[in-house]
Amino acid sequence: MLATPAMADHHGGGHDDDNANQQRAEVIERDDRGRATRVRMNGQEYAVCTQNEQDSCINPREAGLNFGNRALGYWPGRPASQIDGPLPAERSGSSD
Q1: In Å, how far are 36, 43, 50, 94 from 54, measured between CA atoms?
Q2: Which of 19, 30, 34, 42 shows a CA-CA span of 20 to 30 A to 95?
Q3: Contact between residue 64 and residue 25 where contact means Cβ atoms under 8 Å apart
Q4: CA–CA dist 62, 39 (Å, integer)
Q5: How does pLDDT run across 5-19, given as a tens digit for each residue?
Q6: Are 58 and 41 within 8 A, CB to CB?
Q7: Model's pTM, two decimal places?
Q8: What is the pLDDT of residues 28-70, one digit of tens each?
Q9: Can you tell me the distance from the alpha carbon of 72 to that of 43, in angstroms, rounded to the nearest whole number?
Q10: Phi (first) and psi of residue 24, to 5 degrees
Q11: φ, ψ for residue 67, nearest 5 deg
């Protein structure tokens, strides 16, 4: 029996900023600049990922916040850790 990998349900192909179904987290802690550092979603508390905190945290945009990285709508050909410099949000030119 073969199993297929599970895929998150946010792969609609575009940015989620305008998605009415996107759930917003309740901000429960902010830093000195007023930026959310802890949120509550579905009864669970999460640290908000930052440049210095990237493990055991929630991506700000996944929490409905208006900062942080945006997911690419395409596979850039190799992992981000192997790519120097930023990638465009949308694929340009060539097809798959």
Answers
A1: 15, 21, 6, 32
A2: 19
A3: yes
A4: 11
A5: 555 544 444 444 444
A6: yes
A7: 0.56
A8: 999 999 999 999 998 999 999 988 888 889 999 999 998 887 7
A9: 29
A10: -95, 140
A11: -145, 170
Higher model confidence: residue 27 or residue 18? 27
Q: Give the position of tokens 């493990």.
A: 55
Q: In the chain, what is the straight-line distance between the N-terminal and C-terminal CA atoms, in Å?
A: 30
Which residue shows structure tokens 């694929």? 91
Pull the structure tokens for residue 6.
Answer: 């599970």
Q: Which amino acid is at 14?
A: G
The contacts of residue 45 (CB under 8 Å, 6+ apart) are: 28, 38, 39
* Nearest to 37, CA basis, from 68, 12, 10: 68
- What's the DSSP call for residue 80? G
Residue 77 token pair? 């050909």
